[in-house]
Design a protein that fits this description.
By secondary structure, this protein is of the alpha+beta class. Helices cover 34% and strands 28% of the residues. It is globular and about 60 Å long.
Length: 214
């Protein structure tokens, strides 16, 4: 059965589980969001490949994330503020409508864990802690550590969403399969750790007697 989804092309990448604040001011997207709210439907967030957010039709990448609408605030002039909660990845099969907004025939891209995912996730958790400690040592500021999910899939999306990288690189993480995504996260942490001074190591006890911190 064909599944149709209204699309919102943006200069950002939304991952499953991520939250995206949106200011809806163009008439076409006010119409789209109002229809989604009325029919209790999701819409699709897709990164723009070519074109602009405002104005004409933008060409999106083929893989995006469905989003549910939350916390809608309507202004008297018709504008809306809302939060979009990322749900599931999807692939565009065909654009079936371009005016007033894009609608596509899509297929969902569900993920399952793999035999290697648990080991890769363990490496990611270790590097995440090392990276946090190295940042704290370099800056003198300890940032609160986000609790990572025990599910490798969810964890991979959590960290992909956190990375401060260009949109094209985030899109590659969104499109990657689980093992590729975890591997890319490991490489990113390794790369950053090479440029950060390691935190000091506590001396170990020796047979000469107890150590001190002086």
């Amino acid at each position: 059965m064909e599944q149709l989804l209204a699309l919102f092309p943006l200069n950002t990448v939304l991952f499953p589980g991520g939250v995206l604040p949106l200011h809806i001011f163009e008439a076409r997207y006010r119409q789209m969001i109002s229809r989604c709210i009325q029919l209790k439907q999701s819409f699709g967030v897709v990164l723009i490949r070519e074109g602009e957010e405002v104005g004409g039709t933008a060409e999106p990448y083929n893989i995006g994330t469905t989003a549910t609408i939350q916390n809608v605030l309507r202004w008297p002039d018709g504008r809306m503020l809302l939060s979009a909660q990322g749900e599931r990845r999807f692939r565009i099969r065909e654009i079936v409508q371009e005016d007033p907004y894009l609608v596509a025939s899509i297929e969902m891209l569900d993920e399952e864990s793999t035999p290697d995912a648990e080991d890769l996730a363990r490496q990611v958790r270790e590097l995440y802690t090392k990276h946090r400690d190295a940042i704290a040592h370099a800056t003198g500021v300890t940032q609160p550590m986000e609790e990572l999910s025990d599910d490798p899939i969810i964890m991979s999306y959590q960290l992909s969403d956190q990375f401060r990288i260009i949109n094209y690189s985030k899109q590659q993480l969104l499109e990657a399969d689980l093992d590729e995504r975890l591997g890319a996260i490991i490489e990113a942490f390794d790369r950053e750790l090479r440029f950060l001074p390691p935190p000091p190591q506590l001396p170990s006890k020796t047979s000469d007697g107890p150590w001190t911190l002086n």
